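Human:
Care to share another protein and its fold?

Assistant:
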Amino acid sequence: MIGYILLALGLILYLLELRKLSLFIFATFMLKGWRVLTDEVLDVKNFDLAFIFIFVVLAFTIFTEKKTRDLNDRHLRYWLWAFLVFLVLDISFSYTHYHFTGYQILQGSRASFLFLSYFFLRKQKVEDLLWLNRAFFYITLVTSILYILEVFLNLPVLPYKQDTAKIDEYTGIMRYYNFPPLLYWYLFVSILSPHILKSKITFPAIFVFIIALFATLGRTQIAMTSIVLLLALIIQGKAKSILTAVFVAMILVAPFAGIIGNRFAGKFNDSTENEIKSVFNGGIQETVYLGNAHDVGTFTYRMAWVYERAEYLTTRPLSENVFGLGLISDSQSLTINKLYNFNLGLLDEEGETQQLSTPDISYGNLLTKYGYFGGVLYLCIWFYLMFYLFKYHRKSDYAFLGAALTLNMFLLSFSGTTISDQGNFIFPFIIYLMVNKAVTEKKRHNQYIVANNEDNGDSIPDNR
């Protein structure tokens, strides 16, 4: 009931043009309730609320709002429309080829339409988007503190299914996966460009975000985020900042050096180095054929999960390679288990292997849901966002930070659902819009000056 009340409030606020608060509620749905208002707390899935919000608001904006003229975003819209056409074809394919019911297809595909949020986000004012960025900072800071307490005190500070938390075998610490969804973004912001937040607590926030990052105990998360951060500092030419960041990190990590060292080392046969060697020496195929997911490292398991589905597709018709294994949810176990019998995957509540989705790697989810063609088409949206933001990284702090964020999300996609989870589109969309609106406005301003000078008979000076 709480979820539907929030949904109704968000829609009413939008209709009353109180857009900041309305978008804040919508972002809460897209970002899984900030790990506080979880599906269990709301008694409804956050993505379902986001799905309803998107279609109601889109219907409202199509019939009542004028076209925005402060954007030059036709290339991004091209990729979004192309993917929408693919989804419509994929729905038809799931119905005619796999004979799924309309309900099964709706249940399995509704989270695939969250990218449509871009079409009403693009109509929002830059001032409102900036307000959201500052509001999200404080939410992320508070939830980061709660997350740290949860991990190190092993207390149920945040609502979380205890059966999904587990003691890490290398460190002996309870590992929780409900870290703040925008942790990486505000870690980058607080270190690289804290001035954009206009807050007096960005410096102490650095310590909180760094500790929260290490509290995840994720090897890929810690390593890749640190690499992207150092790369960003190098590009900025901030040698002193690099030394400061390393020094601060060393101080913060010192009490936990043994824990972090054990997490990265792992067992000898399960160390990061040996896992990579195993992947290239046939460890993936062995894991698939023997089904020995418990005796291999996480990286080998993730690659094997994808390989098992990809190998299956090589024996299937071309149409299945194009569209994937069907738009259906893993909750439809009776139907799915008649079609597929994969060995690798997490176990559901009934002890059955989940066949079509995994929280461990983005590319497996894209392959099963959209096939090779749809998966590549979907990735083109992410690639375009990353390259656009990098193109303007020298002209805008937001573009620079956005490029770092999207790069980090690509790197982390090998250990999680950073890019296959469409709820994660919302912040890259917001960053892209702020940059695009600024770039478009500047170009039109320059064109106006040139046109005005020509009308007055003035020549443009040659500054070479």
Q: What stands out?
A: The CA atoms of residues 68 and 123 lie 6 Å apart. DSSP finds 21 helices and two strands in the chain. The longest helix spans residues 362-391. Strands lie at 166-167, 174-175.
